[in-house]
Specification:
The chain is an alpha+beta fold and about 575 residues long. It contains 21 helices and 13 strands. Strands 6, 7, 8, 9, 10, 11, 12 and 13 form an eight-stranded mixed beta sheet that branches. Strands 2-1-5-3-4 form a five-stranded mixed beta sheet. A hairpin with an 8-residue loop joins strand 12 and strand 13.
Length: about 575
């Protein structure tokens, strides 16, 4: 595997945001939660099963490297949660974001006592507080309220983690397929865990006796009175410090709001006649949410998509420079125009006029829809642009209706090939067409479908040429560009004039490759990535290093002089792959 260049490493680091760090640490914590819950579920079997499970659980999570990663994730995730509380000026109160934040911030306060008593007690004094000791404390020693608080923290932590996973996965290609299984797991795992704790607690209650206490509640296991006093004092200090930190954060939010209002108000004009007045420091998206102005944002303002993009009207030189994350996202969509910015990242300090590039009622994450794909979904697709050559010359000495007839026959031949190969005709622009592959199949199969469609297009166009040979001075010729990559698919348009399509740099590159068939004197130009994913050998097609308009680095492509050759190449690799 080739090593990354310094430029690639820099670009990758530019794309890392605090939200992505929070996501990564959250995944670590959720993995711990799953392990812990599965361990709890063993209580439905026996106390021996619980003891065996906790052995393997601690063997992994208490190993030094994993412990360092886990506690680092705990501190970072909590810290970023507090930072999110301070930083976020506006929430979608009808959405689940505020619920996720409140639940997440309540978890540390609810588990500090348990963590200090079990983990720190073991580290400082060698206490062996396992399931029997925990069950005794929650079911017998402490008031019944403690038992219900234990179940509450299980539900709260699990709900918080599931909301985070949902917000992360909902735009992924496989989410729709995986959603029923994820829902089943989200319900079954905590249910079995709580049932396991209940059954284990009943066993301890039924076993409670002087002999059982003498065996399971030794000072070496639960600690002496002095040791417990020290641990309780540490718990009290940590709780006081945590609540104090949350209080300080809320005070800081209030102080910032007062400072912003004293610092002046600015006007935001939406280009449609509407103007709102907001304090300095708000992002454009936050200002829209505060004043109930519809604004597109598929990712919910997390800078993971570009659907909240705005174009600045007038002078944009006094605006704050784009953050690393904003520059990365804009670079991903091939936007170098400095007047285009992300509304979720731009915090203007003076009056601003702009208009939105995406219609909010079609692209907003809050818009109701039975299909997430129609709102917007990030996924890998193969884009194919097909263009009819010489259509202008064709129309010079023909009646308009005759020209339309010929173009329709061509587009019909192309569409038939795309559909039979498993693709989807998407947009018709004049005598050209965009087709998409991979909406319901894997990346490898999508690439093969596109190449198979290109060969079939050539065969179908030959038949059209034979059918129209008496009406055509020259046979119909065509150019095809094929490229793959991560795009956003969804509905674009206005009201009743909506079109399902794909947006992103890979689609633009496919159009450039189609244009390149003219200079390379071939019928098809394929990105090398599509060639490799389809399983074609490196020497199967001529290679070219070309400059693509709008891209900083050259691109490796493959040319195909006769598109029908692709059929034999695909047939050769399919059996081997099977």
């Amino acid at each position: 595997m080739a090593s990354l260049s310094p430029k690639q490493i820099t670009a990758t680091l530019r794309g890392v945001s605090l939200r992505q760090v929070r996501l990564a640490t959250g995944v670590v914590l959720f993995a711990y939660l799953i392990s812990h819950f599965v361990n709890h579920a063993l209580g439905n079997i026996s106390m021996e099963a619980l003891a065996s499970g906790v052995y393997w659980h601690t063997l992994f999570w208490h190993s030094l490297p994993v412990t360092l990663v886990f506690y680092a994730a705990c501190l970072i995730h909590t810290g970023l949660g507090i930072w999110a509380l301070y930083e976020r000026r506006q929430f979608r109160w009808k959405a689940i974001e505020p619920l996720q934040l409140v639940l997440g911030l309540s978890i540390p306060a609810m588990i500090i006592t348990h963590v200090i008593g079990v983990r720190l007690g073991y580290s400082l004094y060698g206490h062996e507080i396992l399931y029997p000791q925990v069950f005794f404390a929650y079911w017998i020693s402490w008031p019944p309220l403690k038992m219900w608080m234990l179940f509450a923290v299980l539900v709260i932590s699990w709900t918080h983690g599931c909301i985070g996973l949902y917000l992360w996965l909902r735009m992924k290609a496989l989410y729709k397929t995986a959603a029923p299984y994820l829902l089943a797991a989200a319900v079954l795992i905590p249910t079995l865990a709580m049932l396991g704790l209940y059954q284990g607690g009943r066993i301890v209650v039924d076993s409670d006796s002087a002999e059982w206490r003498a065996e399971n509640l030794k000072p070496s296991q639960t600690g002496t009175s002095a040791e417990k006093a020290v641990l309780n004092q540490i718990t009290d200090y940590l709780l006081l410090g945590y609540w104090g930190l949350l209080g300080f954060t809320l005070l800081a939010k209030g102080a910032r709001a007062i400072h912003e209002r004293r610092g002046g108000m600015i006007n935001l004009s939406y280009g449609n006649g509407r103007t709102i007045r907001v304090p300095k420091g708000l992002s454009v998206l936050e200002a829209s949410l505060r004043h109930n102005v519809p604004h597109a944002s598929v990712c919910g303002g997390r800078a993971r998509c570009s659907t909240c993009r705005i174009r600045i009207i007038g002078d944009h030189h006094d605006l704050p420079a784009p953050s690393q994350r904003e520059a990365f996202v804009l670079g991903r969509v091939g936007t170098s125009d400095p007047s285009i910015r992300l509304a979720c990242q731009l915090r203007p300090a003076s009056d601003l006029s702009f208009f939105q590039l995406f219609l909010p009622h079609t692209m907003s994450a809050d818009a109701p829809s039975s299909s997430p794909t129609r709102i917007g979904q990030e996924r890998y697709l193969v884009s194919m642009f097909v263009d009819m050559r010489g259509s202008t010359k064709l129309a010079e000495k023909r009646l308009p209706f005759d020209t339309v007839f010929i173009v329709n026959r061509f587009l019909g031949a192309v569409s038939q090939a795309v559909i039979e190969s498993g693709g989807r005709p998407n947009q018709f622009v004049g005598d050209g067409m965009l087709a998409l592959f991979g909406l319901a199949v894997s990346r490898q199969e999508a690439c093969r479908q596109a190449l198979r469609a290109a060969a079939m297009i050539a065969a179908n166009v030959d038949e059209v040429n034979k059918f129209l040979e008496h009406d055509l001075r020259e046979p119909i010729r065509f150019g095809i560009g094929i490229n793959g990559g991560e795009v956003i698919v969804g509905d674009i348009g206005y009201r009743d004039h909506m079109v399902f399509t794909a947006l992103g740099d890979p689609v633009n590159v496919a159009a450039r490759l189609q244009d390149m068939t003219k200079s390379l004197s071939c019928e098809v130009v394929i990105s090398d990535e599509v060639r490799a994913a389809a399983g074609l050998s490196a020497d199967a097609l001529p290679q070219h290093e070309v400059e693509i308009r709008g891209r900083n680095e050259p691109m490796i492509v493959r040319s195909v002089s006769d598109a029908k050759e692709l059929s034999a190449l695909i047939d050769d690799v399919t059996p081997a792959a099977a």
